[in-house]
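Changelog entry: the Carbohydrate ABC transporter permease record was regenerated in this release. Current contents:
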Amino acid sequence: MSSTAATTRERRTGRRALFLAVPIALVSIAPLLWALISSVRPGEEIFRYLSPLVWQTFFPEQVTLANFVSVLDSPFALALANSVIVAFFSVVLGLAVAALAAFALACLEFRGRSVVFALMVMCFLVPFEAIAIPLSTTFRDLGLANSYVGLILPALGNGLSIFLLRQFFMGVPTSLGEAARLDGLTWFGVFWRIYLPLSRGPLIGAGLILFVFQWQSFLWPLLIAPAPDVRVAPVAIADFAQQTGVDFGQMFAAAILTSAVPLLLLLFFQRHFTGSTASSGSKE
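Regenerated structure tokens:
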């Protein structure tokens, strides 16, 4: 009877949680759904059915892809390609830096290791916006303005990715590294042959963090790379607001294209991402 009662109670709790989760999810997704619908509406109909809300608010009477065609024929296509290039190299190079730094902080004994880790944690807790303007001045003095290098460099030392990988490496049995060292492997060999193969999930999670951080960045690209040939997608979306007016149809289409890329990646790597944040490494 006790187990049956517990099962019944768990089912009731699950139903209540679902009853609360569904409305919250619908409210959360409604703006994105409205933006998607607005992107396939003619421009004059986007705000026609907002007040009061009617069924046409979320079900357009006319569907057109003209906004997407216009966006892809505009300079926004180059900006989207720039975002892909910058995000790709930020993830690849950022993972290399984060994995090596995390391995050093987790496995190598050196003086001041705890101080370095504490400073790293403090640095990634500081909002990037607080240092963006003086950092952009330094980058301009170094000749890195309006360049891919200037866009990529700030993403390479992502403290959250280093922290995530360090926590995983701390959970890997030290006996594995000690045995490899006795067999003649260098520390880099231990990192490359033992720790990296075990950290596929955390690497994917750290890579997604780096990707999202770089993909949705607006202030830094606006400060350091405003030139049209290196402009990224979030900055290009703002260009649809011009002195003659705002083309909301094209703006919504550009926003949907920009948000679709990280959404698809998160859906594809969701299992690895949730696993990387839930696990802390294999145990002895």
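Residues 69-278 form a domain with the MetI-like fold fold (CATH 1.10.3720.10).
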